[in-house]
Amino acid sequence: MVLERGDVAESWRRQRWDSLRLLTPNWQSRLPGYRYEGADPDGFMTMPEVIAFISRFAEAAAAPVRTHTTVRSVKPGGDGYDIATGGGDFHCRCVVLASGACNVASVPAIQQAIPTSIPCITSLDYRNPNQLPDGGVLVVGASASGVQLADEIHRSGRPVTLSVGEHVRMPRTYRGRDVLWWMENSGLWNQRYDEIDDLQRARGLPSPQLVGTPERVTLDLNALSAAGVKLVGRLAAVRDGRALFSGGLRNQFALADLKMERMLDAFDLWASDHGRDADAGPPERFAPTAPPASSPLGLDLRSGEIRSIVWATGSRPDYSWLDVPVLDRKGALRHDGGVVDAPGLYALGLPVLRRRKSTFIHGAEDDARELIDHLAGYLADAGRGLH
């Protein structure tokens, strides 16, 4: 039984902005026994297309989905778990937590110090620039969501200031191919969680600065700056109505550039070692991220220059309904590659769950197959009285 709080593909229906397209090309959209078969494999699905894709998969797979069934609690009970929902109560031996990692916006506590005269909105609630008042907008966060929203809001005619912290720079195409072709074929995206040196850091990395457009453009900080977006450092504090920014902007640029260069070097080495140089153009290198001529360390939020704030600072899972002691002191789920620290409890769809690609649509299948093997073994042992 699959319990869904809304409709199939609910988060794609309710928690995405209007113009959003997938970051992954259509040829990478695949689920068990089902894949994109349209006429534009190198394109990027719009949100209505994503909703239709997932809905068709649910129908093709004859998935036993109970829609509009909100889970209120999951508790240990008897030989498994008791599940209370708005549509009745259930008992089962095993539970898979597939609610994802983007349930609640992660907004820093400094939001409480923002003057009440400035409306704030998160990337989960943002739909289009018409939600915002006229005038300047401060976008906080420069991952995939932050750079896309900064670009769209700037194109609406509003002056945009983008607060930049740690980020992952990535070109849309490299040597004539989509950068995600390189990540998949070189094996980088298939790297397993138990092969990563600093797994906790890998799971906390921001999403890469990518955008899916028909033109396959690269939307990095250089492009935003050239368009007129003002770049400032990480938002460190708000005091007496004044936003204070970190002075480490150049260091953030240099670190992101260095990591991108290392990634491109790895792609080149893989192509050379595996005889794939003929499949792509010659190696490329990109201009370093140019620091702005001047980057203010402070901004008076009462001056009228900033009329609204968009928090593009990421999101986190919501486990308020999970009444099982499996969360650490920071509220994160304790698990080993999706095998949760409780008998018969599993997770799917979290960052770098079992591979670097775990949170992407095409990353679900490999993780699911391995977890189902474990789950089936658990049930078999339970049937023999071993649990």
Distance between the termini: 23 Å
CATH superfamily of the largest domain: FAD/NAD(P)-binding domain
| Helix count from the secondary structure assignment | 8
Alpha-carbon Rg, integer: 22 Å
Numbering strands along the chain, what is their spatial order in the largest sheet? 10-19-11-12-15
CATH topology of the largest domain: FAD/NAD(P)-binding domain
State which percent range the strand residues make up: 15-25%
CATH C-level of the largest domain: Alpha Beta
Structure summary, number of beta strands: 23
Major sheet size, sense and barrel closure:
5 strands, parallel
Number of domains: 2
Average pLDDT rating: 96
Outline: globular
Q: What structural class results from the helix and strand content?
A: alpha/beta
How much helix, percentage-wise, in residues?
Answer: 10-25%
Poorly predicted ranges: none
CATH architecture annotation name of the largest domain: 3-Layer(bba) Sandwich
